Structures are given as structure tokens and as C-alpha cells.
Request: fold
Amino acid sequence: MDLLPEVHAHYSINFRLAQHGYWIYDFILPGLILHTLFSQSSSKLKEYLKVCPRKQVTMLDCHDGIPIQPDLDDILEIDEAQNVVRTCLSRGANLNRILSAEHKRRADFDAHQINCTYYDALGKSDDAYLTARAIQFFTPGVPQVYYVGLLAGENDTTAVTQTGEGRAVNRHNYSIEEVENDLRKPAVQRLLRLIRFRNEYPAFNGHFSVHETEESALSLTWELDNQRCTLQVDLKSSCSVIEYTDEEGKIQTYAP
Reply:
């Protein structure tokens, strides 16, 4: 039996669990990717990817919200975390707040989780959303995709009004007809192709590396024997490209 503890705390707690061989949830990645795309700066993300635990389940969204405090404490500065929060609020999000003063990093900053679909958090940009998923899938660990995220779902403000629960914004109750329609959306078709690539390409069982790039770019590689795939991200455009070696040893390219 494998134990997967769900711990919302300072990242050092999960790092220590990982050192003891436990699986962990990567609650840093969701907010850190948003910061990376919003600021067009890869420096914080590259630092994290070099040292993050390898035995982890990665995620971008879930039934609760996008973690901010305490998960990103000492990963993002308070003003950087506030910028992520403000941007999401401008795109229809609401917040789970920290009530206890002793658990706030600063008295005027009480954001615990951002309630918002990840697709809306990225301004409903298909390219930015697929780039975020590509970064998640290239991050060491086992990727988890929440059902609303799989369907590139949008904020359900009606459910928030009906239930009085802020987290309902990212808990849409889909009809079968809605699922069938959303599966045909271009963003979802692109995501499904990316999922198949992540599941099937052998190099993801090999060695991971983070390349040195300029601040507005990100480059991640997986290698195993003669198989190699590299994700190249242009943060100025929020677009990405995957270069990979096919079975014949030829370099192929596709944009997620």
C-alpha cells in the first residue's frame, strides 16, 4: 500500500516527507505556473523544478482551489503572490481566506486558495492553458488532471449563487450532453493529444533536466536511451513547442 498524504503547509514539510520516501501532492506548481505566465519570468519556476521531489503527484486544479498560503510561502514573495491573486480575481475568481492572524504571512494578505477554473485564470487562452498543462506534464511526478480542467471548463458563477459556496465555481455538474460537446472543443482535443503523448512517450521514465534560458523562456528535457523530448516555452507569447525523437531517430516537432 502506498500512502499519499495531502498536506497544506510550508513546502519544507512536503520536502521532508519526500525525503522519507512518501508520495506527496505538489501544491506549489499551480500558483507558480500562474506566476510564471503572468510575469513572463521563468526564474522562480526553474529554481523549483531543479529541486522539487520526484515522487509526487502534480496538479493544477482540484475540487477546492489553487493553493496560495501557506503552500507558496517562501517560494513567491508576498507581492508576487498578491499579483497572482489580483489577476485571478479580475477573471471571476473568489477566495478562501485565512481567518487566523498567526497563519497569515502579513496582516493584509489573507488568501488561502483561489477559487477559479484554471482555464479562466489564464484568461480563457487556449495557448496559455495548453502551455500550463505542458509544463505540468514535463514536471517530475505523476500528472493528475481534474475533470473540469480536462474539459477546459469555465467558472460556474450560477452554482456559486445557488449554493453560497465559493468553491462551487470550479465544481460544475456536467450533463452527458455538455461532456460530449466540450470534448469537441479545440482546447480539449489539444489537451487529449498532449495527455496521450505524456502517457506513451518512453523518455518520461528517464532523466529530467532544466536548461538555462533567458528569463522569458523555459526549456525542459526528458531522456531515456535514444529517446529525447524537450519542451520549449516562450513566455512572451504563452506558446510552447515540443521537440522529440521518433522511433526512427528523426526529430519531430509539434505545438501542444
The chain has one domain: 11-200. The chain has ten helices and eleven strands.
